[in-house]
Amino acid sequence: MRVGKFSVAAVVAAGALVLAACGGSGAGGGGATGTDEGATEATTAESTDAGGDTGAAAEGTIGVSMPTQTSERWIADGNAVKKGFEDLGYKVDLQFANDDIPTQSQQIDQMITSGVKLLVIGAIDGTALSGQLEAAAQAGIPVIAYDRLIRDSENVDFYVTFDNYKVGVQQATSLLVGLGVLNEDGSENADAKGPFNVELFAGSLDDNNAHFFWGGAIDTLQPYIDSGVIVVPSGQTTIEKAATLRWQQETAQKRMEDLLTSTYSGGDKVDGVLSPYDGISRGIITALQNAGYGTTIADGLPIVTGQDAEIASVKLIRDGVQFATIFKDTRKLANQAVVSGTAFLKGETPEANDTETYDNGVKVVPSYLLESDIVYAGNIQELLIDSGYWTEEQVASGVA
Length: 400
Fold this sequence. Notes:
This protein has 400 residues and is α/β, with parallel strands linked by helices. It is built from 14 helices and twelve strands. It has two domains: 170 residues, Response regulator (Rossmann fold), CATH 3.40.50.2300; 168 residues, 3-Layer(aba) Sandwich (Rossmann fold). The protein has a six-stranded parallel β-sheet, with helices on both faces. Strands 7-6-8-9 form a four-stranded parallel β-sheet, sandwiched between helices. Strand 1, helix 3 and strand 2 form a beta-alpha-beta unit. The chain is elongated. One of its GO terms (cellular component) is outer membrane-bounded periplasmic space. GO terms for molecular function: carbohydrate binding. It is found in: Cell envelope.
């Protein structure tokens, strides 16, 4: 099956709303209720160095609006941003909106009314905040979009995120490595034998990041689809067909079950699944295990990718159940929000390393992009444990 090439320009032109990956419990257990103490501590130390002055200049309150507490990463992000600003001497009003748009709007309204000096916003629905951002601009409050681009407003002053197109490239690369098409160093494996049956999952269509993830992944897979090394037996090769509303694990599990019933009941087998997020991955894995594919990759479970290095999925990777995930070190993201925010608070312009990519429909928002890493079983120790992101005990238990 052929999938149309999805370039960066097409991603931007898609004009999707914003909603980054949300969490949930997964195959093999593990909830999204923990916090990442290592992330908070590391961000605190880095932001103190990068933020500059910590004395009398640090006055006022920072408003931090995060979308949900149903994902361990958003809890860690909120706490890390809060701690980073507090270590510079600021007060912080941190609010979680529990995936409810009116709640987030009301919380931000209250922050503006109370006179915060800066807003850091991880939006649930970026197009629902135009009124709040207009009020912030009138009050002279700078706005930093945190990991989720806020769309359709000129009053977004800065964006901190990861290189989301590259994240998609890494997800597809890990799938190709798992199938044996590529080696871990990215080189071609001359001994690879296809065709491989692959199914594609995407994030929520109202999430700007989901389109970047998809674009990077499809651009990477396209040559192998064109050559017939990879086939998509279901024919569901567009982001509209592959999308997972609100990034929900249960929705992904149901779609995988439906695919198995509709496409693979005749004896064909799934070899791999492109998944853009660990919660979705755990839903996919549950469906495959329930369908008799085995409990681990060694006994027949297909290759499944992921994103966010959630602790439940990290344990699954170590146990040979999920093949890979993408590690976006949110300690660095929180630190960058603090660094950029501190520049605004000093009357300066934050450093941007991308001033072309992130068009929110009204303006190109100056951005700072961070790098991500592919996590396989063999580098969990180096990337996640040695760096202090997770402890050995957490990885062993799958619980934060």
